[in-house]
Amino acid sequence: MTDPILTPLPFLRALFARAVSVADPMAMLADHLPARPSGRVVVIGAGKASARMAEAVEAVWGPCEGLVITRYGYGRPLRGIELVEAAHPVPDEAGLRATERMLRLLGGLGPEDFVLALVSGGTSALLCAPQGLDLAEKQAVNAALLASGAPISDMNIVRKHLSAVKGGQLAAAAYPARMLCLMISDVPGDDPAVIGSGPTVGESSSPADAAAILARWGLTAPKALGASSVVSPADARLSRVENRVIAAPAQSLHAAKAMAEAAGCSVHVLGDAIEGEARTVAALHAAGARAIAATLGREAKPILLLSGGELTVTRRGDGIGGPNAEYALALAQGLMGYERIFALACDTDGVDGAAEVAGAVVTPDTLTRSQIEATDALNSNDAHSFFAALNDQVITGPTLTNVNDFRAILILPPSGTNSYWQR
User: Fold this and answer.
1) Using CA atoms, how far apart are residues 43 and 102, in angstroms rounded to an integer?
2) How many CB atoms lie under 10 A from the CB of residue 336?
3) What's the total number of domains in the chain?
4) Are 243 and 254 contained in the same domain?
5) Mean pLDDT, the chain cut into blocks of 10 residues (423 residues total)
6) Are 238 and 360 within one domain?
7) Strand-pair partners of 69
8) Which of 2, 109, 264, 407 has its CA at a distance of 20 to 30 angstroms from the CA of residue 146?
9) pTM exceeding the 0.90 threshold for the entire prediction
């Protein structure tokens, strides 16, 4: 009996768990936290990791004054900081009211006060202060963007110009207090201005840029774009802000790579910032995996292909799906007939799309075991139902962090190694 870590599916799941664990705020935030400043300290935050980040702060600093907003089910026991759970990926009333209280908390701070901001993926929906439109209109724009297939950078530009808190406005509200913003990146390129729609980072785009993005993706620009109040990067109110990315996809991929190499794999990292339509990227990755499989000799090491970033899905049907599950299903189609290739595609926050599922695994017999036609599932964006019927979903529950997509493709050589790497 082989060690479970050295069989394909448990091995891939263990790599994913490793990638998530190195991005856990409790494991790494303290290294980026200064000594607690004297005087008044206010801790604020938003995102799927914000409660865990606040928990890590209080583990070092003790009970603090403040408020963080996280996704429903992602709360943590905090000693002083107020916790509010709200909706993601489409904002709700709870997030709206909590954001109003956060802005009031920042009002009236002086130059001797210190604000610690904690920002992670999910902030764009959870930190909700519509500018020039009501909540229902903001929800409609958000839902339309999510269904359009637009990349996160485009979506967040639009969100900034429809918000009274994004695009540097949260930091401006705290001025003249000093602010340190610690960020966990869930965006390709790790640009602080894109993470969570940059509530503490100045914005140089214009309402016209946002309108052009909406037009590009076939969406109508709301009149509220004209009320945009984003803060210029040169604005003096941002002069006392430091933004620092403390965890990013590259770190998680590096940790998984080291673990796989220790297990005897030859590892190729395809990139940590891959974007694009999930099924299109899957087709490219499947072609690459097939080409590698065709060249492997009997004595070759297993090959592992790792990638991260954020894929998108253009909504075509009414099924239950997400970028990682859709990638996995399209990958299974592209690998049909190859007996030595296994894969996993998951979101590190434990939520793929709007489903409480991290993603899925792919085996050589994924399509032959299924009673659901893969093409039909793709056409209706129903990849989660497809993998649920096979019991091949990866369900983690809240991971309390978010460094976006994690994808791994394992290619085994045609030798006795197959008896060592059993499903």
Assistant:
1) 10
2) 14
3) 2
4) no
5) 65 98 97 96 98 98 98 97 96 97 96 98 95 92 89 92 96 98 96 96 95 93 89 97 98 98 97 96 98 93 97 92 96 95 97 93 96 95 97 97 97 68 52
6) no
7) 46, 84
8) 407
9) yes
